[in-house]
Amino acid sequence: MAGTVIWEKALPRNIGFAFDLEKGQSVRIRSQTIIDFVCFNRDNLRERFDQARTKANQRKVFISTGDMLVSKLNNTLMTIVEDTFKEGHHDLQEGMCSRKRHELAAARGMWEKTYGRPLSEMPPRGCTENLATILAPYGIALEDVPSPFNIFQHMIIHPDGELEHSHIRPKPPGAHVTLRAEMNLLAALSTCPDVSVGGTTGATVTVLE
Ligand SMILES: [Zn+2]
Predict the structure, then answer these.
(1) How much of the chain is helix, strand and coil, in % rounded to 5?
(2) DSSP 3-state assignment of 106?
């Protein structure tokens, strides 16, 4: 189990953050909002997290302690070593929210039901813009940001395939997930502007030896 804290950072809601992880180090992410999390092989940034391989290799659509994040080249990027989110599951179906996604939901009259607040509170940007901005200095274009591991995003998957948003999120003071790097990585996350739980809570990111 991970031990000594190397560094810790508190993040506000609706921001992107990128950081390096050496093989064997772990990152603990604590939040009450959704965290859109992606990672890349530090020595080949074209090798990235892949939702499909992560699901197919492990024959499941919900992952938790003991499960892995797998790359498109079929290598293990990370292992989940701790998961205290007991209210729901993490998501491996959805992409990322964005201003465009929000505008499409509004155009379909789905904004308030999906995002749980009035149209006047539509955020100026979403996880897509947050991750694209924070990854641009690494030469990773928006189009090359993979669909993330959506931590704390509880989606309801109906037997007929319907995918339903839920407003289930970690209860205060939040839950955490700890992931161990299985190779040298570039990791990045967005603290989602989702406001299903209200408030302005972001996340605390802790890297452990
Ligand atoms: Zn989001």
Answers:
(1) 20, 35, 45
(2) helix
| pLDDT value of residue 200 | 65
| SS3 letters across 60-84 | CCCCCCCCEEEECCCCEEEEEEEEC
* Residue 163 Cα to ligand 1 middle (Å): 16
Residues facing 132 on adjacent strands = none
Residues in the chain predicted with pLDDT less than 70, given as ranges, are 1-2, 195-200
pLDDT tens digits for 115-167? 878 888 889 999 999 999 999 999 999 999 999 999 999 999 999 999 998 88
CA dihedral 28, 53, 85, 134 (to 10 degrees): 50
- Taking the centre of ligand 1 as the mean of its atom positions, its distance from the CA of residue 164, in whole angstroms, is 15
Q: Could you say which DSSP state residue 166 is in?
A: -
pTM of the model: 0.94
- Spacing, Cα 194 to ligand 1 middle (Å): 6
Residue 67 Cα to ligand 1 midpoint, Å, equals 23
Residue 155 Cα, ligand 1 centroid: separation in angstroms?
13
**Residue 2 alpha carbon to ligand 1 centre in Å:** 28
| C-beta separation of 41 from 137 below 8 A | no
Closest by CA to 36, choosing from 196, 175, 188, 200, is: 188
Distance 128 CA to ligand 1 centre (A): 7
Give me ligand 1 centre to Cα 4, in Å.
30
